[in-house]
Amino acid sequence: MRALPCRAGSRGAEGFKVADRVAAPRFETAPGHLLRRAQQVHTDLWSTIVGPELTGPQYGTLVAVAGWPEVDQKRAGELISLDKSTTAGVVARLEKKGWLTRRPHPRDGRRRLLTLTDRARANLPVWTSAAAQVQQDLLEPLDVDQAQEFIRQLQLVVFHSETEALSEAPIRTEPVVQLAGSPGYLIRRAQQVHATIWSTVFGGDLTGPQYAVMLAVANGESIDQALIGARASLDSSSVTDIVARLAEKGWLVRARDPVDRRRMRVRLTQPAMTAMPHLSRSAQHVQDELLRGLSADGPDEFIDRLRRVARVNEPTRDLVAAG
After folding, report:
1. pLDDT at 106
2. 252 contact partners, CB below 8 Å, separation of at least 6
């Protein structure tokens, strides 16, 4: 990417120009970051309410098999928006648990259709009740009207039209959570849309989480990796991996904390600070493209609702953002 020239300014303690601070969208208002946070909230609620016996993708696979006729592994993945390798792993685990079986397709011997076992079908109402509670608790910060509008806006972000969203409805009526109206499913789909747009705009040069880490230290300060993770809503292992990759690219510098040698402090390099305005403009383009399906006055309302669902505090004046 073409780097932009630095603005003039005095140099701070870290050697960067104080005037080079980046005026970028904040974490608290960046939809890509908020979607990641909302997904984390959904995962935590699912783990608490449904428990470890059944994951969200596993439940979604059972919903696909229960709600659509003649579902094979490929079709199941398409219906619940999972990639090929993830779908294969989910189906294998459900088979091992005795909740799915495969049978030859009556007209195409190359396909093996998925079928719920009697045991899974008996448990489906219990799992559905728990899954519905997760969706309800996820939307707890919103009142009824706001929650309905939030789901409608999520559908527009994901499908770009309500007609397309309705086409995802199952053919058979089963006691399951309808995916097209499930905020947890829609948030995951919206994350996938965001990732696709990000990849197109940045061309594989920089991922969203990598940008989030860079923006966490964009003010030119040197901070430890724990604070980076807290700002960017990334776990410690992800931060460690991302910091290492960005250091290899010459975007970050790592150094031992002079007070606590066990801690590693991180700062942006001067070339990274120079490139940051360009990166931030590209990141803003991703956010604008993500929300293009909303009306002119919809994005701000949607971001506010998404922020509350993600349990993120009111925006502050900090000059940090995320992808």
Report:
1. 79
2. 213, 214, 217, 243, 246, 266, 267, 268, 269, 272
Give the C-alpha separation, 37 to 26, whole Å.
14
Phi/psi at 255 (5° precision): -155, 150
The pair of structure tokens assigned to 25 is 């969208």
pLDDT on residue 321: 43
Closest CA to 112 of 68, 76, 72: 72
Place of tokens 């990334």: 234
Q: Give the phi and the psi of residue 26 in degrees, each rounded to 5.
A: -80, 160
Tokens 């109206």 — which residue? 181
Q: How far is CA 144 from CA 57, 213, 267, in A?
A: 26, 35, 44
Q: Which of 266, 218, 220 is nearest to 245 (CA)?
A: 266
Q: Which residue has the tokens 């974490």?
A: 27
pLDDT of residue 11: 36
The pTM of this model reads 0.83
- Consecutive H or E run containing 116: strand 112-116
pLDDT single digits (tens) 52-84: 999 999 999 999 999 888 899 999 999 888 999
Q: Which pairs from 203-206 meet CB under 8 Å and 24+ separation?
A: 205/1, 206/279
Low-confidence stretches of the chain (pLDDT < 50) are 1-22, 162-167, 316-322
CB 273 within 8 A of CB 6: yes
The C-alpha atoms of residue 161 and residue 184 are separated, in whole angstroms, by: 19
What pLDDT does 90 receive?
96
The tally of CA atoms less than 13 A away on the side-chain side of residue 74 is 3
CA 184 remoteness from chain centre: 11
| Residue 178 confidence (pLDDT) | 84
Strand partners, 255: 265
> Dihedrals φ, ψ of 90, to 5°?
-65, -45
Closest among 29, 12, 32 to 21, alpha carbons compared: 12
